[in-house]
Every structure is written in C-alpha cells, then in structure tokens.
Amino acid sequence: MTVTIDKASLLAELNKPYLLSNENIAFYQEYGYIKLKNVLSAEVIEYYGELITDLVFKLNKLTKPMEERTTYEKAFLQIMNLWEENEEVKEFVFSKRLAQIATELMGVSGVRLYHDQALYKEPSGGITPFHADQFYWPLSNGNTITAWIPLQATPMEMGPLAFAEKSQDVEIGRDKEISDESEAILSETLKQFTMNEAPFDLGEVSFHSGWTYHRAGANVSNKARRVMTMIYMDKDIKVIEPTNKYRTADWERWLSSKEIGTVADGKLNPVLF
Which residue windows are coiled coil (predicted)? Predict the structure, then answer.
C-alpha cells in the first residue's frame, strides 16, 4: 500500500512555533543545555530522516575499517552542510521552529545558521570524547547553540549525547580538540559536575551552548545512531581572528572568510529567525 505524504503539513510543523516556558529558558541559561520533548513528530523525522540518511551515505568518504580509524573517526561519520546538497533537506535545516527555540533559549534577537552536520555513529562506533564545540569556531562570544536531533529513539546502547551540567563557564580544556587527550583531561576536570546521560525519546531534541562540555558513549547496538544537528549563532555575532587551524578552516569554509571584526553574515549564514 502506498502511503501519501502530506508535505504541506510537514512544512507547517517545521515552521510552527514551539511553546517554551520561562522555566525552560531559565534551565538552559543555568545548565548550559536543555532536552525538550515532542519538538518534532514521527512523521517529520521519518520523512526528512530518510532524505538525510540517503545523503550521508552518498557523500560519506570515510570507508576504512573501524580498527584503522582514529578516535575521532570512530566516533561518527560527519557530513556537513547538507542543505547545500538538497532542497528538501534545506527545508528541515531552515526550520523556523528550531531556530525560534534557539533564539529564545539564548535570549537574543535572532539567529543565523553557522552550519549543519549529520553525525552518524555506526554499529561498533566508539565514544565521542568530552569536548566543547566552540573550540572550533572563530566567533566573538558564547551566544552559540547546537540543536542535536536524533532521527530515531536513542537508548543508552546507541550512545546518546550526555551533558556536564553547568560546565559552560569551565576554562580548563577549552584549548582541546576532540581526542583521547580531551577525554582524559575533561573526565577528571568534570568529576564534580552532574552528568545528564539519559536516552532520547523519538521527537526529543537537545540544545546545548557552544561552551558546554558533552560526550557520547559507544554505539553497541546493531543499528546506526542517526543524528542531524544545526548550529546557530546570534545574528549579530562577529568574526574573530582564528586561534587554531580548525578555526582557520571554519573561517574560510563556513564564514566565507569574512573580514575579522565584522558580523558573521557570510553567504552561508542566513538569518533563520
């Protein structure tokens, strides 16, 4: 039997406001992250998840055996800016609903897209070591946020994202890339912080600050852990001088080599809300 997709209703959902409470916003501001239930319906996740998955495996170039990979490579297949590759995936990435949540949680007047990325942790994929994302971003302040969107329910055996609560102001480890070293240093540094390691229900989406430390366990299930992410930044954030090779690469690729000190409004950074 052929199932008819009501595309109009999917698009309407992607652009319908999500009601955040004052408590939600206060939690994010204090803890550096939040997990929200029922952000997306099963229908939206299924439809756009299939498109995203098809693109991931079409564009993926990491094919060497798991035992030959680095710790970073074992953590996930990483494909970025899928919105440039497919108009329907662009509909998902440009969702006003998700951008509105990001805007209100940060308490800014609007957000731009920094970039999107799919993070697919294969069966037998290793841990994602502790890290803070903003190590990689040449941006002038901490008004950055990542939406982490599982494309299936994500039980513990799949390696859901875990957050060190209230860690967004910790200075130690901010100069560490995702690596065995970052895992070792931050596992020790963050011992005094409560970890939220709970699984994700279908439709549950997390949002975390660029400086909040997080990690994920290995995928010991027999299915890929499929996740799509969007990184948003305050629409008025500025570009700073890159301080490492990763920030230099990001400046060139995602920020269109915008002049240092100017608003990060490159051709790939539209205002989404």
Answer: none
* Nearest to 178, CA basis, from 124, 246, 82, 224: 246
Question: Which band of pLDDT confidence, cut at 50, 70 and 90, is reported for residue 3?
Answer: low
Q: What are phi and psi of 171, to 5 degrees?
A: -90, -30
| Burial call 46-68: b when 16+ CB within 10 Å, e when fewer | ebbbebbbebbeeeeeeeeeeee
Q: Which pTM was predicted? A: 0.94
Describe the crossing of helices 7-14 and 42-59 by its angle, rounded to 10 degrees. 90
SS3 state of residue 239: strand
Domain residue extents for the chain: 19-233
With 70 as the cut, is the pLDDT of residue 2 above it? no
- Distance from C-alpha of 270 to C-alpha of 193, rounded to nearest angstrom: 36
Which of 209, 211, 231, 241 lies closest to 140, judged by CA?
A: 241
**Residue 119 CB neighbours (<10 A):** 22
pLDDT, one tens digit per residue, over 55-93 is 998 998 867 776 777 777 666 689 999 999 999 999 999
32 Cβ contact list (under 8 Å, min separation 6): 163, 165, 166, 167, 168, 208, 209, 211, 212
- Hey, what amino acid is at 197? E
What confidence tier does 1 reach under pLDDT thresholds 50, 70, 90?
very low
Q: How far apart are CA 171 and CA 135, in angstroms?
A: 11
pLDDT of residue 66: 67
Nearest to 146 by CA among 131, 159, 126: 131
